[in-house]
Amino acid sequence: MAINWFPGHMVKTKRAIKENLSLVDAVIEIRDARIPKSSANPEIDSLCGNKPRLILLNKSDLSDKASTKKWINHLTKSNVRVLEINSLNGIGINSIKPILLDLLKEKHERLKAKGLVNIVTRVMVVGIPNVGKSTFINKMARNNIAKTGDRPGVTRTKQWIKTSIGIELLDTPGILWPKFEDEDVALNLAFTGAIKDEIMDTEELAYKLVERLSSVSPELLKSRYKIDEISEDPLETLDNIARKRGCLMSGGRIDYNRISVILLDEFRGGKIGNITLELPE
């Protein structure tokens, strides 16, 4: 499944990250807790350099808890901290300031030694499209400053957002890389909605999702759709799910478009269960 998608504004975003990095004390990188590896832009490490970073595993209410803990341990480094959050209900948000203060402790001590008292922490917020960046910023700012939407690519311009806890956030549009060489990465992004559905074949994507879920969470798949077994053939499993949901056309033919939309919507909404699609290597 070859996918090429690199809108022009994302080229500008990459340039803006480089240009504005000197304006901030730290970087908050938001990833999808269901796909912590696939939702990390491989260029973020080189773009951010040694800048202190806080990785937020967002949508943690949709991921497998044990898997999320493994990812936290795997990603944590001397200048990188990792926190699981849910931007919609605010779980984990209160832990962000203490973690940032710990990351920036030495810098703040130097500033205080120079007589500065009211220190404002400036942070750049980065992440791929549709990972929940704008929802996070709105939760931090307690109002709808940043545009939000369930379609990738809503935020287009740079904006500074003040919060009541001494942190200023620099928002940037979501950035994806030019080409997805790894099919698993491309599929993970498509499953979770980071890639626009318009450029995907929905029925093929649903087939691939059944194939993946049959491997990582077969019991949840069986329980949700009340099917007795998982077939070795993903298409047969998809057919059984369609019949259970009544997605049939005249003559008993499977309505693949309808069941594909249902399956993708229910996975993205967490209705199938708490699922993490990849684990640390």
Automatic annotation (TrEMBL):
<keyword id="KW-0342">GTP-binding</keyword>
<keyword id="KW-0547">Nucleotide-binding</keyword>
<keyword id="KW-0963">Cytoplasm</keyword>
<dbReference type="InterPro" id="IPR019991">
    <property type="entry name" value="GTP-bd_ribosome_bgen"/>
</dbReference>
<keyword id="KW-0694">RNA-binding</keyword>
<dbReference type="InterPro" id="IPR030378">
    <property type="entry name" value="G_CP_dom"/>
</dbReference>
<feature type="binding site">
    <location>
        <position position="174"/>
    </location>
    <ligand>
        <name>GTP</name>
    </ligand>
</feature>
<protein>
    <recommendedName>
        <fullName>Ribosome biogenesis GTPase A</fullName>
    </recommendedName>
</protein>
<dbReference type="GO" id="GO:0005737">
    <property type="term" value="C:cytoplasm"/>
</dbReference>
<feature type="binding site">
    <location>
        <begin position="86"/>
        <end position="87"/>
    </location>
    <ligand>
        <name>GTP</name>
    </ligand>
</feature>
<feature type="binding site">
    <location>
        <begin position="58"/>
        <end position="61"/>
    </location>
    <ligand>
        <name>GTP</name>
    </ligand>
</feature>
<dbReference type="InterPro" id="IPR027417">
    <property type="entry name" value="P-loop_NTPase"/>
</dbReference>
<dbReference type="InterPro" id="IPR023179">
    <property type="entry name" value="GTP-bd_ortho_bundle_sf"/>
</dbReference>
<dbReference type="GO" id="GO:0006412">
    <property type="term" value="P:translation"/>
</dbReference>
<keyword id="KW-0378">Hydrolase</keyword>
<dbReference type="InterPro" id="IPR016478">
    <property type="entry name" value="GTPase_MTG1"/>
</dbReference>
<dbReference type="Pfam" id="PF01926">
    <property type="entry name" value="MMR_HSR1"/>
</dbReference>
<comment type="function">
    <text>Required for a late step of 50S ribosomal subunit assembly. Has GTPase activity.</text>
</comment>
<dbReference type="GO" id="GO:0003723">
    <property type="term" value="F:RNA binding"/>
</dbReference>
<feature type="binding site">
    <location>
        <begin position="130"/>
        <end position="135"/>
    </location>
    <ligand>
        <name>GTP</name>
    </ligand>
</feature>
<comment type="similarity">
    <text>Belongs to the TRAFAC class YlqF/YawG GTPase family. MTG1 subfamily.</text>
</comment>
<dbReference type="GO" id="GO:0003924">
    <property type="term" value="F:GTPase activity"/>
</dbReference>
<feature type="domain" description="CP-type G">
    <location>
        <begin position="11"/>
        <end position="178"/>
    </location>
</feature>
<dbReference type="InterPro" id="IPR006073">
    <property type="entry name" value="GTP-bd"/>
</dbReference>
<dbReference type="GO" id="GO:0005525">
    <property type="term" value="F:GTP binding"/>
</dbReference>
